[in-house]
């Protein structure tokens, strides 16, 4: 159990034993079983091109949905967009199976408020820096906190704006159906493209189960790796870092140090060579007239926060 959250329960509500066990199965155990199962199946039977493309398509939809929809749009209000575009981006995020949008945003706003301090739901520094502390901290930040935390962020406290939004309330209410859709859509695509039940089942495995496990661990690596390893190019009061390979996999979210330096900024990769596909998507939406009031980086703020000359 985390030492930190017990000290600080501001803006939190207790989680029931049943719900914690659901989190344990869906967020911790199933993905941890799916990943080696996928590796074993790929090794033994190979992975067909059709299933690979289906999994890659849903991975892309999910990562953009989390990064652009859940994170930059809902949690940090880095840009505005018309209702149908907003709803579509948030539904893409919900299909990643990381929880209903209002709960995800509530946990994440609390993370920013207390980042790496008592009250942060998932700091890799929660168990200190001595002995097994760093390893326990990384496991806690990656997936452990879903089960060990006895309290979750209060939505009424952290996201009253989202609870007042009828579109978000509707997507929250439809979350269970979206979980089913997240498995059924890739499976149906596989069945239709191959016109066979075998195609349905293999796409369910690769495009459903393995894809969601990979999406989860890629996303959670921002919470663990990008608060523990990597470069600190900017001055922040937390221990957030910039990690190139995490940024590549998360479409820009691994440039996490700048994100903590300027959380409402729509671009996370702001230094030379820092690819940020999510910022690219927001730019595209802006050009199409589907995003406005985008908070692009402010050069004065950027140079003021630089902690070292970037290499
Ligand atoms: Zn962070
Ligand atoms: Zn954030």
Automatic annotation (TrEMBL):
One function term, GO molecular function aspect: oxidoreductase activity, acting on paired donors, with oxidation of a pair of donors resulting in the reduction of molecular oxygen to two molecules of water
Listed Pfam families: FA_desaturase
Transmembrane domains' residue ranges: 21-46, 52-70, 173-197
Name of the molecule in the record: Stearoyl-CoA desaturase (Delta-9 desaturase)
Family stated for the protein in its record: Belongs to the fatty acid desaturase type 2 family.
Keywords: Fatty acid metabolism, Iron, Lipid metabolism, Membrane, Oxidoreductase, Transmembrane, Transmembrane helix
Domain Fatty acid desaturase, chain residue ranges per copy: 54-267
UniProt topology in membrane: Multi-pass membrane protein
Compartmental location: Membrane
Gene Ontology biological process terms, A to Z: fatty acid metabolic process
Domain of life, per lineage: Bacteria
GO cellular component term of the entry, any: membrane
Broad class of the protein's primary localization: membrane
Keyword field contains Cell wall biogenesis/degradation: no
Signal peptide: none
